[in-house]
């Protein structure tokens, strides 16, 4: 079973790297949208010196990977090496694929979406395509005050500024759009599409409300012991996770039982458990 799971993880790294490469060759590179990272830097060098994007990405990633092994240890992992190699190779193999659009906005948005899907699939199985995230980890090793997230932002910022100098500032602005879109899609792929709502209910009628939720909605809930900040009285806070379609029904139950109840509802990106979904790590 372990080998099967490992095979599926590497299969996802292959798939994600291929999808990511398509975003570069069919959307971003042909339109000079250098959306940060090693791929963005390679895109700039391609138009300045006619150097192949895929091989330049590999050229940058090899010393980054070796530096990662030296300074970060084996935690860099074989998945990073595989992802870096595949991303570069697939970029070169698909370099002659037809360009989907020459519209800069469409290329930035859809290129960002497809890049986010590809990288999100790789990141979801704890893989990496090297590049910015690995460079940021090395930067964090030497300058601990700079977090990995801040390091990624700094590196992408300078790459996009470089694209603005090399091309023009309008293209740099489109690159920011592509970077923003891809980062959001990566989050979506990693966190999952299983959006739900977490509801906190503060009321003096928690017993009655809880019984209605259990019987009428068939949803589980949790009692949280709390203390009123003003009254200093002990209170029960109900926590319940529901689907978006159940929000109106829950609010009606609470309002009919206790019109003065205090209800907090917020988004939950992924729910694992009975009534929702399970995930085997």
Describe this structure in words.
By secondary structure, the protein is α+β, with helices and mostly antiparallel strands. The chain folds into two domains: 2-191, no CATH class; 196-268, Alpha-Beta Plaits (2-Layer Sandwich), CATH 3.30.70.120. 62% of the residues lie in helices and 10% in strands. It has ten helices and four strands, in the order ααααααααβαββαβ. It has helices at 2-28, 37-49, 53-72, 77-93, 104-124, 132-142, 148-166, 169-191, 206-217, 247-257; strands at residues 196-202, 222-227, 234-242, 262-268. A four-stranded antiparallel sheet has the order 2-3-1-4, covered by helices on one side. Strand 2 and strand 3 form a beta hairpin. Helix 1 (2-28) packs antiparallel against helix 5 (104-124), helix 5 runs parallel beside helix 8 and helix 6 (132-142) crosses helix 7. The chain is elongated. The protein starts with a helix and ends in a 13-residue tail after the last strand. The relative contact order is 0.13. The model has no long low-confidence stretch (mean pLDDT 88).
**Rg value:** 24 Å
Distance between the termini: 12 Å
Number of continuous helical runs:
10
Order of helices and strands: HHHHHHHHEHEEHE
Q: What's the total count of β strands? A: 4
Tally of individual domains: 2
Residue share in helix:
55-70%
Sheet having the most strands: 4 strands, antiparallel
Label the overall shape: elongated
The helix/strand class is alpha+beta
Strand content: 5-15%
Mean pLDDT: 88
Low-confidence stretches: none
Strand order of the largest sheet: 2-3-1-4
Transmembrane segments: 7-29, 49-73, 105-125, 146-167
Membrane topology: Multi-pass membrane protein
Subcellular location: Cell membrane
Protein name: DUF2179 domain-containing protein
């Amino acid at each position: 079973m372990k080998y099967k799971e490992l095979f599926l993880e590497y299969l996802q790294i292959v798939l994600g790297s291929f999808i990511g490469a398509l975003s570069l060759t069919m959307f971003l590179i042909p339109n000079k949208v250098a959306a940060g990272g090693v791929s963005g830097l390679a895109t700039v060098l391609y138009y300045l010196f006619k150097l192949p994007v895929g091989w330049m990405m590999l050229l940058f990633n090899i010393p980054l990977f070796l530096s990662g092994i030296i300074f970060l240890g084996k935690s860099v992992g074989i998945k990073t090496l595989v992802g870096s190699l595949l991303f570069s190779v697939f970029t070169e193999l698909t370099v002659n694929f037809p360009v989907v659009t020459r519209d800069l906005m469409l290329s930035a948005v859809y290129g960002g979406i497809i890049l986010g899907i590809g990288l999100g699939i790789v990141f979801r199985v704890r893989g990496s395509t090297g590049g910015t995230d690995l460079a940021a980890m090395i930067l964090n090793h030497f300058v601990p005050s700079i977090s990995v997230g801040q390091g990624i932002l700094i590196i992408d910022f300078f790459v996009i500024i470089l694209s603005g100098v090399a091309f023009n500032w309008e293209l740099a602005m489109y690159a920011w759009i592509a970077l923003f879109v891809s980062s959001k899609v990566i989050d979506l792929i990693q966190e999952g599409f299983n959006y739900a709502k977490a509801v906190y209910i503060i009321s003096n009628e928690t017993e009655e409300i809880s019984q209605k939720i259990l019987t009428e909605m068939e949803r589980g809930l949790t009692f949280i012991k709390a203390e009123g900040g003003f009254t200093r009285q002990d209170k029960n806070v109900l926590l319940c996770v529901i689907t978006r379609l159940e929000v109106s029904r829950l609010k009606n139950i609470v309002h009919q039982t206790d019109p003065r109840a205090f209800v907090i509802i917020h988004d939950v990106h992924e729910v694992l458990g009975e009534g929702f979904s399970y995930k085997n790590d």
